[in-house]
Design goal:
alpha+beta; 3-stranded antiparallel β-sheet; flat; two-stranded antiparallel ribbon; 2 domains; Ribosomal Protein L22, Chain A; 4 helices
Length: 142
């Protein structure tokens, strides 16, 4: 279960816009994610595609086959905000905030579980543990 990461710092687009693209490819195979990003008309598609290729290159350096890699985690965090001012009427000014993003990609050879699967697995483990405790109580009482 080797993990491979790649990061992109201070990408000059707002995290909200980049997250929309990241949500499309999260949890998919690398090959299908790259083809989807190639046909996407969003501006963040190109840099994300380049970042995934960089992560695949990192995996090849660790001698991991790129055919069975999945995008297990994509984090899009807030970066540095550039503050500018625009002139307005009557000699006033209005603030302009130019947002940037930090993007982190984690590739893994195991297919990621969906959250719904994780919660059902946890519920099954909890119910099995409860049944085991009940059977132990009955055995100790007899």
């Amino acid at each position: 279960m080797p993990e491979v990461t790649a990061t992109l710092s201070n990408y000059r687009q707002s995290p909200r816009k980049v997250r929309r693209v990241a949500d499309i490819v999260r949890g998919k195979k690398v090959s299908s994610a790259l083809t989807e990003l190639g046909f996407l008309t969003k501006r963040a598609g190109g840099p994300l595609q380049k970042l995934i290729k960089s992560a695949v290159a990192n995996a090849k350096n660790l001698s991991i086959d790129s055919a069975d890699l999945y995008l297990t985690k994509i984090e899009v965090n807030k970066g540095v905000t550039l503050k500018r001012f625009r002139p307005r009427a009557r000699g006033r000014s209005a603030p302009i905030h130019k947002h940037s993003s930090h993007i982190r990609i984690v590739l893994n050879t195991e297919k990621p579980m969906r959250k719904r699967q994780q919660t059902t697995d946890n519920r099954q483990q909890i119910s099995e543990a409860r049944q085991q405790k009940k059977s132990e109580k009955i055995a100790t009482n007899n």
